[in-house]
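Why should sequence recovery work at all? Because a backbone constrains its sequence more than one might expect. Tight turns favour small or flexible residues, buried strands favour hydrophobic ones, and helices have their own preferences. The token representation captures these environments compactly. In the example below, the structure is given first.
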């Protein structure tokens, strides 16, 4: 079981903590405000009222033993930078942070954050992607060049198999999974016929994925 510590329990931090719990992970939630901790305490593995800016507090909570720490204090730039720096110095393997803008993001990356998200910017980008690519259910950017998309089965693909379509050779992308009736099927059978309403989870270079948007 993967373990996470979420520092900062505003709307974003609480949502992340609950989503991780729903995914079967162990979650320690931390906030300096008691009311925020009480709001989530019975829905996570453990919840603590603590000041994460205190190095001794982080040590006492055994932070370095967690697989990943999420710093969601986007509205307090100084605190988020300080906490991120301390988490890396304590040896936390992965530190993901929420930033308020590009300057904040750059500072967090400078002190060692492994991943930085600007929620408003990312949501705006994904909303724009959904408008521009109506057959794409979801779009997750991995880097400047690669992404994972959830694509509705194109009409021309219905009743055919991945093997028949020769997707990897023709489009240069990898089909990682099918979503059928709300269930995710990893490593799909290449000989199985695809049905209307199914969703493909596809990994590839943006230039190659672009070929699929017009199908």
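From this structural description, the recovered sequence reads:
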């Amino acid at each position: 079981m993967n373990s996470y510590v979420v520092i900062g329990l505003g709307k974003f931090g609480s949502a992340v903590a609950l989503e991780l719990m729903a995914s079967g992970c162990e979650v320690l939630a931390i906030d300096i405000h008691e009311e925020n901790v009480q709001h989530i305490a019975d829905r996570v593995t453990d919840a603590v009222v603590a000041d994460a800016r205190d190095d001794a507090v982080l040590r006492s909570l055994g932070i370095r033993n967690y697989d990943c720490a999420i710093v969601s204090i986007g509205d307090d730039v100084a605190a988020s930078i300080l906490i991120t720096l301390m988490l890396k110095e304590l040896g936390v393997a992965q530190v993901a942070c929420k930033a308020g803008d590009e300057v904040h993001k750059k500072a967090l990356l400078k002190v060692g954050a492994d991943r930085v998200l600007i929620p408003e910017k990312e949501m705006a980008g994904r909303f724009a992607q959904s408008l521009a690519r109506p057959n794409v259910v979801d779009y997750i950017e991995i880097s400047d060049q690669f992404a994972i998309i959830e694509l509705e089965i194109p009409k021309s693909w219905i009743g055919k198999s991945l093997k028949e379509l020769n997707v990897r050779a023709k489009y240069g992308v990898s089909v990682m999974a099918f979503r059928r009736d709300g269930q995710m099927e990893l490593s799909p059978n290449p000989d199985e016929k695809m049905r209307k309403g199914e969703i493909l989870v596809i990994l590839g270079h943006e230039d190659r994925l672009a070929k699929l948007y017009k199908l």
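A few observations help interpret the result. The radius of gyration is 20 Å.
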